Amino acid sequence: MNKIEWTLKAFAELTPHELYDILRLRSEVFVVEQQCIFLDMDNKDQSCHHLLGRMGDELVVSVRIVPPGISYEEPSIGRVVGSPRHRGIGAGKALMQKAIEETIRLHGNLPIKIGAQLYLKKFYEEQGFVQCSETYMEDEIPHIKMIRNA
Questions:
Q1: Nearest residue to 83 (alpha-carbon basis) of 22, 147, 17
Q2: CA–centroid distance for 100 within its chain
Q3: What is the DSSP letter of 109?
Q4: Pairing relation of β-strands 141-148 and 136-138?
Q5: CB atoms < 10 A from the CB of 55, how many?
Q6: Is the pLDDT of residue 125 over 90?
Q7: Distance (Å, rounded) from C-alpha 14 to C-alpha 49?
Q8: What is the average pLDDT score of the chain?
Q9: Domain count along the chain
Q10: How many whole angstroms separate alpha carbon 7 and alpha carbon 133?
């Protein structure tokens, strides 16, 4: 795998180009690829730190690190997204490892809670998360809540 270069920024620190790249990648995967019509801009991004993984000039992976009290009582990692052009190279796993590390650095060694698409349960279990809810539907996609203990 080519080396991923990481950048972590608060929302207000993002350049217009970085914000565009994030929103474009999220639209490419969540709206177009998954054929899910939903409002991605949910007024949480402004409170979050955004972790970007680039290879050269291309945004390959991205997440937002959500502070406690915004989505859940615990800090959270959300909008986990990877470019379809770079799947199978370990970028998603590297992204989650880096996101967990940065979440702990920003918010302390607290449990981290996520809302995960059900088909990714095994992937998140490999990152230390365990299911903590029944399956529920969000935007017509089965989801579960998962937690990674401190």
A1: 22
A2: 10
A3: S
A4: antiparallel
A5: 18
A6: yes
A7: 9
A8: 96
A9: 1
A10: 32
Give me the CATH number covering residue 16.
3.40.630.30
pLDDT digits (tens, 9 = 90+) for 57-86: 999 999 999 999 999 999 999 999 999 999
Span 83-117, pLDDT tens digits:
999 999 999 999 999 999 999 999 999 999 999 99
Residues 6+ positions from 58 with CB-CB distance below 8 Å = 83, 85
The three-class DSSP label of residue 81 is: strand
Assigned domain for 96 exists: yes
> H or E element: which one contains 96?
helix 91-107
Q: Is 3 exposed, middle or buried (0-12, 13-18, 19+ CB in 10 A)?
A: exposed
Largest CA distance in the chain: 40
Any domain includes 19: yes
Tell me which residue range forms the domain holding 72.
5-107
In a domain, 120, yes or no: no
Is residue 92 packed enough to be buried (19+ CB in 10 Å), middle (13-18) or exposed (0-12)? buried
Residue 33 covered by a domain: yes
Identify the pLDDT of residue 108. 97
